[in-house]
Design brief:
Elements (H helix, E strand, L loop, with lengths): L14 H12 L5 H8 L16 H7 L4 H7 L6 H6 L2 H13 L5
Organism: Littorina saxatilis
Protein name: Reverse transcriptase
Length: 105
């Protein structure tokens, strides 16, 4: 096998950033919805905001408790697809949001 001559953007992130992105993409994460349904380790799948299940889509797009952090990172509405699979710049925004929101995914 020949070594890769160039790397895609995902591989340039730190290990922690890569793990966070993969967990958000696959849904295998530490958010309430997964931890409740899969492992029964969370008392409820519902987010602390009480509006809906705490999923990657909910925290990245709609959770009212994270509105301020979300608007700082994405001043204009951004598609979930872009946040999880976009350019390096968009993926950096996603990892920054997770860190600034204090979320453990």
């Amino acid at each position: 096998m020949r070594p890769r001559t160039n790397r895609d953007d995902y591989n340039t992130f730190s290990r922690e950033q890569q793990v966070n992105l993969i967990r958000l993409r696959t849904g295998h994460n530490r958010l309430n919805a997964h931890m409740n349904r899969k492992f029964k380790l969370a008392p409820s799948p519902t987010c602390a905001c009480g509006q809906e299940d705490q999923t990657a889509e909910h925290i990245l797009q709609r959770c009212p408790l994270l509105d301020e952090e979300r608007k700082e990172v994405w001043p204009s509405p951004t598609l979930l697809q872009t946040k999880l699979y976009g350019s390096r710049q968009e993926l950096e925004k996603t990892t920054t949001f997770i860190t600034s929101a204090g979320l453990i995914v």
